[in-house]
Each structure stands twice: as structure tokens, then as C-alpha cells.
Specification:
Immunoglobulin-like, Methylamine Dehydrogenase, Chain H, 8-stranded mixed beta sheet, elongated, Integrin alpha-IIb, mainly beta
């Protein structure tokens, strides 16, 4: 038999509406319609999407704490055959006066002969019994064949997906198999086997079941081809979506109709039952009103993907049908509204805001704002939202269009966006009715791949006058393990258990489960809390128990009453009163008179519908010295809660009531409103900050108040980076050493100094703040301080904010010193050089010119260049023979090629005396006044001599660092001994200049250091009038004169008795000292 693909207009595979996948092998969801896997021409993205979604499943979801559990947890569960997709579709159904649940299982196996997985519908009893769910005998026959002359008709029921949509009305049940296939043959011609789909309508108690398949036809494929497929309904998939109006009109979506542009059928349920004859597989004259073929913008648009019914045009005689067209205009998507008359007339289309979001995947109707008019809800589960990092993430979005007014849905929609990537938020939407009995409709929204592990979630949103509350009231997480697709199917608005509150059905076809969440009775609390308008600290009309201290007190009165439907006759409530609740417990300003506590708890027993129960408690204001905040209101609250041992109830209404009072302020007038007039001026004695110097800074702020008292007045100083607070002093009496608090606010360092509570009218305060600054080199050319004088009750004023800017500069003081070692050199009177010798002492006398560069700071300099000019030749002859250069402190010099060209042996350190044979004579002669009788020394510099240029570099020189260069040279004696220089003395002067190219900072100095210096060697000769060797006769005469002088001296000393001294006694002496004395005298 030819395949369906052979009839494609392009000759390839048919573009069957796509089907999304959910984790699990080969699972097909109703996200997008399409034929079963064994149908030729399957849309190619079907398998790909199924695999991709398994890979892209991410963890997460809405992690918002529930605030009101309107639905009771845990739920009651129904279970179907594994792998049957039990829970794919569901609805409430009344059977024999009892409520029950109809559940579709489109992949269930049955006993139909020769059919594989045709699907089934289960009826589950309430309350559940031992076998709560049993399959309904809706379609029990196998594949069917009929012959009419040359025509042959076939139905194919394997994988027909019976139960893909399930809808109940007035005890009747409509269950559809959108993938049931049909083929018509006429000899060699055929229509091809295609998914026309079939719906089954069962009367109450299943006394009668009929089928309805308006897309079946006896036309052959060539007929459709000749008509350009304009009325081609072979791929209808009728019943892909279904809804029933309150008066029994069945609306069926067929997104594959008209060759995938989609169509809609409208037919009365009772008409199907009354006109069904069942004599042929082809029902000619099938009742129903289809939409007509549409323009090319609907190509592959899938009109009929979802349907809902409601009232939008204000004409109560007609109902409107809402139809999803999620792929219209190249995946842009649209939702259409039709009105039902003799024909289906399109009233309006609502465009999607985003391409490929699958806007219209789901539609639902509810009265959210309680105005009596239906509102429209639209799901776009593939909506991409932009994350904070700028990337887009598929989160899903719900759109709410409020009805009312003369125009059809005139207002822009309210939108709610999911938070879990790939969670398919808004893939299912259900009206819940009024769960909390507040007059507004509530809504359930499914995210079948949401949750921390992708098992699915359902969010409950409460209605209000402006629409839906933006935060879900309750979040239902999947109670089933694995990828259950919990929340794929939802149905609400029906009271299953008879407690007066609607219940919710949640399908989880991935786990073959259905969860029933029962609406809980709602207790509505009415609470009032009253306190005085103001608290006067001056009126002390209460006494603290056990202390005798008088305090300012006041009364706190609260009253509670409850109402509700189907609630117990006595309601137990836990009440909690909090005093000054916005403050930390230890900082609260008011306490209860009894017990000195800031809170009170008690259990109340309230009878619904009776007069309120009230409590009157006395509280007092603590002494003003015990707290600082006198301005902010004193907030009180009463919170009500149900005891934990009272399940099955929900507390709603005034469960948290707040009231506030204030402290009456001193000298603030009758209005108790102090308005200060704060002024601030600031300066700094520091004119500038130098990089590298001790970075100490002082700020001086002058604060004044020309108005009324300023409470909690404080000086706020915002510190620039690298600035640190040290200390502060003020002119406040008793607070000369001011207490300031350094802290960090939003990544910025600030200092807060308290200036009084209150800072009284007329106050003038001076604050000196000492600061230190580090890292000036990275701060730019200035640092700026923001100062603000503020208080709790002061209005913002430009007078109370000032800016102080301190320049940051780079500056360095540098010194260059030149010195000669030795500074004076005395030339010998005679010199005996050794021709060809390489010894230094045989060629000249060593001298050294030293230049020292000193950075006194405070800043560092870089790129220092030192240039030297050293006299080298005089009159074409060598004067200073350059030996070598010595450097220290990072100095690097360019060596001149004239350094030691004769390769003399350098063996002695600087300053050693020449070592030739005249050494002793030189020393003696040097002791004589040098140059005596000679002319003034002749200056020798670069003006009259040939100089050698030497260039040196220092990369960087920090504060107090030094760099040195020394030029080692010989006074060349051959030149100095020449005749023209024999009677000359010299001042040999070298010169040096330094410059700097930059400083290593962002801030450059106003000027760069530069300077110069000289080093002078004084070269002198011994006096020309000096004597030679002393004569011999002079020596003899000197010796004789010395002997004569010695003789005269000895004679004088003998005459004076010097030689008559007493000898000291020895060990062998026997005379006493007196006798020895006498004997000595006698001898004298």
C-alpha cells in the first residue's frame, strides 16, 4: 500500500505537526500533534526533539516558599498500567449521581483483536476503593473494513491514542483518538492511510457509545492533488483538543486539517447521539460546523492545537471559542477567538510577542478578577527570557488577558514567567474556581519538566482585582519518582469530595499516575489592632513592677473574629503580638509592662460568626537613654496561625495585622515634626600630597544646625581608595576625642561620626579628622573626599554635602656632588720615569674624580642620565691618563675607548702613593709649604684642554638612594716634566651634569630634577728654593754643640743634689731607716 508520504506536495515526507518529547523512551506528548511512530511521513523532528529534551533537562524551578496551602497535601493517587501514559488527559465525570474521574491512557494495551496499544479511558471512583480505576469499554473492536461497490474503507486502530483528550459533560463522556488512521480505496486509487482521528461519545453509564469522525472522506489522493489540497482533511487528527460549552456544544481541534493549516469543528453532543446511525464507517452528512480553509499565513500553523470556551463579546446567547494556532506565520503563533452562530465567525486574533515560543500551546478561561466576565489565559511554554548575564533561557510564560468593557480583551496582558530552564512552564493551565472564597478565581499552572529533578511542578496562583498575584500561593512538587511529567494535564473547578471547596486533578503520564488534591476549608480571620497615635516620654503614668520606676505607658488592643464555609464550630488560633517588630529584639524601644518582654503569645478559641474576642495589654516606653532611634515609627503586629494539630483547614484573611505609633519629640512643635537646617563646610590644611612622603592628612569639617533638632545627626565621610581613618577630635563638650565608626557601604569605605541625638538648634561643631593615605602613586592627580552632614529627620540639602579635593603631586630633590681624591697632589722635585714600564708608579701619580648622585626624595625618579667631561690632553699631550671607571648604586656608564690604552697594570687601590725611588724625599718635601715662590695654579678644564665625554645612566633612583661613578686616572708625569710646565701648577677640573626623563607615576611632576657639579684636583710643586744635602762640617759642629750642652746640664744637676738620693732598703739590710738616714747624711 502506498505510504502517506507519496502524496506530499513536495514529493518528500509530509510536514506532520511536531510532537515534543519528555524524558523516557519513545514517549510522545501532546505538546505538538503528529502520527504514531509507525506512520510513514512522520515529521522528522519528532525523534530528534525527544532525544534533545532528555539531554537538555536541567535542574531547578520556582523555589518560592508557599504562603497559603489551599490544596491539601499529600494527594490521593490513582495508578494506571505502566507505560500506558495513564494521566495524559483527565476530567471530572458524574456517574449515577456520584463524582468520579475519567483518565486517558493513550498508549494502553487492550483486548482488541489485532491491535497494538490503541489506548484506553479509565474511570476512577471517588473515594477510591480496592480497585479504584477500571477501563471503559469505549472501543472494543479491532481494525474495521467496509466495502461499498468499488469503494473500500479501512480504519486502523493500532497506536490510535484513544484517551489523548477526555472531556465530560452532563454525565456524558467524550474521548478522542486523534491518531486513528483512515484509508479509502477505489480500485488502484486510494486516499492513503492518514490520521483523520475519531472521537467517541458515551452516554451516562456507558449505555451507548457512538463515534464521530467528520474528517473521513471517500475522495482519492489525485482529487486532493488536483484541488491543490485546499479541502484536504486527511490529516485532521480530530480531537487533538476538545472542550464542551455549558449548553453541550462540543468544540474539537484538528491541527492537521486542511493540510496542516488546521481547523475547528463545532457540534452539539446530543446531535451526535441522536443522528448517529452506525451502519457505515463513512458517515455522510456528518453534523458539525468546521472552519473554512484559510490563507497561506496559516500554512503549517496548526489551528486547533488547543481550544477553550468562554463568554467574551457580552452576548450571553452565544459562546466564544478560543483556539490556539501556535505555528502561524512561520512559528510566530496566535490565539483566535470565534463566535458560534450558524457558522464559526472569527472575532479577533491575539499575536505572540516572540517567535517559536509556542504561544497558544494551551488556552484556558477563568474569571480571575471577580468581575463576572471571563478572562483568557494563554500558555507559551517555549518562551525565551533573557537572563541577568544577557543570555536567553527557555523558561515559559503565562499570559492573562482580562475581559470586560465594550471591546474584546482590550487591555495589555499580565505576564508571569517561569524560572526553571526547560521546565515547560504554562504547558498546562486550569481554572480552579474560587479556592479561598475571596470572590476571585484561582488558577493552576503546570510545568511538567520543572522541579529540582525535572519530575514536574504545579503552581497555584490566586486571583485578585488586578489579575493574578505574581507570586504563587502554593507550589506542588511531583510526589512521583523519575521524569513523571507531573503537571502535564490539569483539571479543576469541581468539588470531588463534597466539602464545598473545588479540587484539582494533576496528571503525571510519565509515571502513569494521577494526583487528586483536595481543596481545604478556609477560615477567614478578621483582626484589628489599635495603639495611641503618639507616645509622650514626659508623661510617666505607670510604675514598673518590683522597681518603683515611673515610665511612660500605653494600651495595645487587638480583636479577632472568624468566618468561613463548612468550617468547625470552634476555631483554635495561635496569636502572637510583637512590639516594635522592625527592631532587633535587644534594641526594641517598647516592652510589655508585665514581664518586660517585647512579644506575647496566647491560644484563642473563636466561634465563627460571633462577636470579636479582644485583648487589652499595657506596654511602656523605655528610658530615652537606652536607645538612640527616636524618629522611626514604633511598629506593632499581631500574627495568627492555626495549630499544627489542626490539619485540613487553611487560615486566610487578616492573619498579620500591623499598626504603628511614634515617639513625641522634644521642642518640635505641636506637629511633632522637627525640621533641621544643616550646613557643612570643610577644608584641609594639607595643600598637597607628595608621592613617597609621609602621607598624613587632616580634614576639618564645620557643621552647624540653623533649624530645629536633628536626630541621630552624623558626619559621613566617604574615603577614597587607599585612605584610612586614624582619629578624630571635636568641639563637642565632653566629646573632644570623638568616637567615629569606620565601615564599608556598598564596597565603599566611609567614616561615620555621631554629632548628637539630637544636634540641637544653633549647634556649631568643628571636627578634625586625621587620616593616612597609602598607594598615592595609583590614585591619580587628586583624591576627593565626600562629606555629608545628615540626620534621620533632615531633608536632603546641598548645603549639607561638600567635597574636598587634595592634589597629589610627584616631586624629588636631587643633589650631585663632585670630589677629587686626593684634592691636592704635590709633584716631586725630580722624577725618574722608566721608559716602556707598565707599572703605574713608573708613569704617574693616581688621582680619582668621584661624582655622587643623591635622591633626597620624596618621590622616585627614573631615567636619570649623568654626563661627565674630564680633561684628558693639554697642548696635545696627555694630562690625565684615564685608567678605569667605577660605579655603584645601579649606575651604568658608557666606557670611552681612551680608557687605559697602554694596558698599564692596575694593582693598587685608589689613593696609594707612587712607589718610585724618590718616595722618602717626596714625603719630606711635601711637608714644606708647596708652591712657595711659584705662580698661581693654572685652571685646566674643557675650555683650554681636550676633554673626554662619559655618559652614565641610572634606571631608577628611589628616596634616599645614591648612585656613584668614579674616574680613576694618572697625572701623566712625562707631560708635567716638560720644560714649559716645570714651573707651572694646575687646577684640573672635571664637570658633570645630570637630568631625569620621568617619574614612574600616573602623575607627572611640574618639573624634572636636573643639576651639575665639578671635581677639582689641585696640582702643586715643591718650593724651588729648597736646600740639597747638609755639609759634613755642619754635622760635626752640631754634634759638638750637643755634647757641650749635655756636660753643662749634668754639672748643674750634681750641684743641686740630684745624685745624693737615699737608696731604698733591701732584704739583707739590718739597720733601721733612721740610722741609714744619719749615715747617709754623714756621708754627704
Amino acid at each position: 500500500m502506498p505510504s502517506a508520504g507519496a502524496d506530499a506536495r513536495s514529493g518528500g515526507a509530509l510536514p506532520v505537526p511536531p510532537i515534543t518529547a519528555v524524558p523516557g523512551p519513545d514517549c510522545v506528548l501532546r505538546d505538538k500533534p503528529g502520527p504514531p511512530r509507525d506512520v510513514p511521513g512522520l515529521w522528522p523532528h519528532f525523534g530528534v526533539a525527544m532525544r534533545l529534551l532528555r539531554v537538555l533537562l536541567l535542574l531547578g524551578g520556582l523555589r518560592l516558599p508557599p504562603t497559603l496551602g489551599l490544596l491539601q497535601e499529600p494527594p490521593t493517587e490513582y495508578t494506571g498500567p505502566p507505560g500506558s501514559y495513564f494521566g495524559f488527559a483527565l476530567d471530572f465525570l458524574m456517574t449515577e449521581g456520584r463524582p468520579s474521574v475519567a483518565v486517558g491512557a493513550p498508549r494502553a494495551n487492550t483486548s482488541q483483536p489485532g491491535v497494538a496499544q490503541p489506548g484506553a479511558v479509565f474511570l476512577c471512583s471517588w473515594p477510591p476503593d480496592e480497585t479504584p480505576c477500571r477501563p471503559l469499554p469505549i472501543d472494543t473492536a479491532g481494525d474495521e473494513t467496509e466495502t461499498q461497490g468499488t469503494l473500500e474503507f479501512h480504519t486502523y486502530k493500532s497506536h490510535q491514542w484513544l484517551g489523548a483528550s477526555v472531556t465530560g459533560w452532563d454525565g456524558k463522556l467524550v474521548a478522542c483518538a486523534p491518531l486513528q488512521h483512515w484509508n479509502a480505496l477505489d480500485g488502484p486509487d486510494e486516499a492513503f492511510r492518514t490520521p483523520t482521528g475519531t472521537c467517541f461519545v458515551a452516554t451516562p453509564g456507558l449505555r451507548r457509545v457512538v463515534w464521530y469522525s467528520p474528517c473521513r472522506d471517500q475522495s482519492m489522493a489525485n482529487t486532493y492533488r488536483q484541488n491543490n489540497y485546499e479541502h484536504d482533511k486527511r490529516y485532521c487528527e480530530i480531537g487533538f483538543s476538545a472542550a464542551i460549552t455549558p449548553d453541550g456544544t462540543l468544540v474539537l481541534g484538528a491541527p492537521g486539517g486542511y493540510y496542516f493549516t488546521g481547523l475547528l469543528y463545532s457540534v452539539e453532543v446530543n446531535t451526535i447521539l441522536s443522528r448517529f446511525h452506525g451502519t457505515s464507517l463513512l458517515w455522510l452528512g456528518t453534523p458539525g460546523r468546521p472552519t473554512v480553509p484559510v490563507s497561506l499565513e496559516y500554512e503549517d500553523g496548526y489551528r486547533g492545537y488547543s481550544v477553550a470556551v468562554g463568554e467574551f463579546d457580552g452576548d450571553l446567547r452565544t459562546k466564544e471559542y478560543v483556539v490556539g494556532v501556535p505555528n502561524k506565520r512561520d512559528t510566530r503563533g496566535e490565539v483566535e477567538i470565534f463566535t458560534a452562530g450558524n457558522t464559526l465567525r472569527r472575532l479577533r486574533g491575539i499575536d505572540s510577542e516572540q517567535v517559536a515560543s509556542y504561544f497558544g500551546h494551551t488556552v484556558a478561561v477563568a474569571d480571575v478578577n471577580g468581575d463576572g466576565r471571563d478572562d483568557l489565559l494563554v500558555g507559551a511554554p517555549l518562551y525565551m527570557a533573557r537572563r541577568p548575564d544577557g543570555q536567553r533561557s527557555e523558561l515559559g510564560r503565562l499570559y492573562l488577558y482580562l475581559g470586560g468593557g465594550h471591546q474584546l480583551l482590550p487591555r495589555p496582558p499580565q505576564t508571569l514567567t517561569g524560572t526553571h530552564p526547560y521546565g515547560r512552564f504554562a504547558a498546562a493551565i486550569a481554572s480552579l474556581g474560587d479556592l479561598d472564597k475571596d470572590g476571585f478565581g484561582d488558577v493552576a499552572v503546570g510545568a511538567p519538566q520543572g522541579g529540582d529533578d525535572g519530575r514536574g511542578q504545579v503552581f497555584i496562583f490566586r486571583g485578585q482585582s488586578e489579575g493574578l498575584e505574581p507570586v504563587p500561593t502554593q507550589r506542588l512538587d511531583s510526589p512521583f519518582p523519575g521524569p513523571a511529567a507531573f503537571g502535564f494535564a490539569l483539571r479543576g473547578g469541581t468539588d470531588l469530595d463534597g466539602n464545598g471547596y473545588p479540587d484539582l486533578l494533576v496528571g503525571a503520564y510519565g509515571a502513569a499516575k494521577v494526583a487528586v488534591y483536595r481543596g481545604q476549608p478556609v477560615v477567614v480571620a478578621h483582626t484589628q489592632l489599635s495603639v495611641p497615635d503618639g507616645l509622650n516620654p514626659e508623661i510617666l503614668d505607670c510604675v514598673l513592677p518590683d522597681s518603683g520606676i515611673r515610665v511612660s505607658c500605653f494600651h495595645v488592643v487587638f480583636c479577632v473574629s472568624v468566618t468561613g464555609q463548612h468550617i468547625p464550630s470552634a476555631i483554635h488560633l495561635e496569636a502572637e503580638l510583637q512590639l516594635d517588630r522592625l527592631k532587633p529584639r535587644l534594641s526594641r524601644r517598647v516592652l510589655l509592662l508585665q514581664g518586660h518582654q517585647s512579644s506575647w503569645r496566647e491560644e484563642l478559641v473563636v466561634t465563627p460568626g460571633t462577636r470579636p474576642q479582644c485583648r487589652n495589654l499595657t506596654a511602656y516606653l523605655r528610658d530615652e537613654a537606652e536607645f538612640k532611634d527616636k524618629l522611626s515609627p514604633v511598629a506593632l503586629s499581631v500574627a495568627l496561625a492555626l495549630p499544627r494539630e489542626a490539619p485540613g483547614l487553611v487560615l486566610y484573611g487578616n492573619t498579620l495585622v500591623q499598626a504603628q505609633t511614634h515617639i513625641i519629640l522634644e521642642d518640635c512643635g505641636e506637629d511633632n515634626l522637627c525640621i533641621p537646617d544643616l550646613h557643612l563646610a570643610a577644608d584641609t590644611p594639607s595643600q598637597r600630597l607628595l608621592i613617597g612622603a609621609e602621607a598624613a592628612l587632616r580634614l576639618r569639617a564645620h557643621a552647624s544646625n540653623a533649624g530645629e533638632g536633628a536626630f541621630e545627626a552624623e558626619l559621613r565621610v566617604q574615603l577614597p581608595p587607599g585612605t584610612h581613618y586614624q582619629a578624630a577630635r571635636s568641639t563637642i563638650p565632653g566629646q573632644e576625642k570623638l568616637s567615629c565608626n569606620p565601615k564599608k557601604e556598598n564596597g565603599t569605605h566611609v567614616v561615620l561620626c555621631e554629632l548628637g541625638n539630637p544636634m540641637k538648634a544653633g549647634a556649631q561643631i568643628t571636627v578634625d579628622m586625621e587620616l593616612s593615605v597609602s598607594g598615592l602613586e595609583d590614585l591619580g592627580d587628586a583624591i576627593t573626599f565626600q562629606l555629608q552632614l545628615r540626620s534621620k529627620n533632615s531633608p536632603s540639602s546641598t548645603n549639607a554635602s561638600v567635597t574636598v579635593t587634595v592634589p597629589v603631586e610627584a616631586q624629588a630633590e636631587m643633589e650631585l656632588r663632585g670630589n677629587s681624591l686626593p684634592d691636592t697632589t704635590v709633584l716631586p722635585t725630580s722624577w725618574q720615569g722608566v721608559e716602556g714600564s707598565r707599572r703605574l708608579e713608573d708613569r704617574g701619580i693616581k688621582v680619582e674624580h668621584v661624582y655622587e648622585l643623591h635622591n633626597k626624595g620624596p618621590s622616585t625618579v627614573s631615567g636619570v642620565t649623568l654626563r661627565l667631561a674630564v680633561p684628558h690632553q693639554l697642548g696635545g699631550h696627555i694630562l690625565l691618563y684615564l685608567l678605569e671607571l667605577g660605579t655603584e648604586g645601579g649606575m651604568n656608564c658608557t666606557h670611552h675607548p681612551d680608557l687605559n690604552p697602554a694596558q698599564l697594570e692596575i694593582a693598587r687601590p685608589t689613593g696609594a702613593a707612587p712607589g718610585n725611588g724618590t718616595r722618602q724625599r717626596e714625603r719630606r718635601e711635601a711637608e714644606e709649604p708647596p708652591g712657595l715662590g711659584l705662580g698661581e695654579p693654572v685652571p685646566v678644564d674643557c675650555d683650554n684642554a681636550t676633554c673626554v665625554d662619559i655618559t652614565c645612566h641610572v634606571p631608577s633612583l628611589g628616596k634616599d638612594q645614591r648612585a656613584l661613578v668614579s674616574v680613576h686616572a694618572l697625572l701623566w708625569m712625562d707631560t708635567l716634566q716638560q720644560r714649559e710646565h716645570l714651573l707651572s701648577q694646575f687646577l684640573i677640573q672635571s664637570q658633570a651634569w645630570f637630568s631625569t626623563s620621568a617619574m614612574p607615576y600616573r602623575v607627572q611632576p611640574r618639573f624634572l630634577p636636573a643639576g651639575n657639579a665639578t671635581a677639582v684636583t689641585r696640582v702643586v710643586r715643591a718650593s724651588p728654593g729648597g736646600k740639597g744635602a747638609v755639609p759634613v762640617w755642619g754635622v760635626v759642629l752640631g754634634v759638638l754643640a750637643g755634647l757641650l750642652l749635655l756636660t753643662l746640664l749634668s754639672l748643674f744637676m750634681w750641684k743641686m743634689g740630684f745624685f745624693k738620693r737615699t737608696r731604698p732598703p733591701t732584704e739583707g739590710d739590718t739597720q733601721d731607716p733612721s740610722q741609714a738616714q744619719e749615715l747617709g747624711g754623714a756621708q754627704g
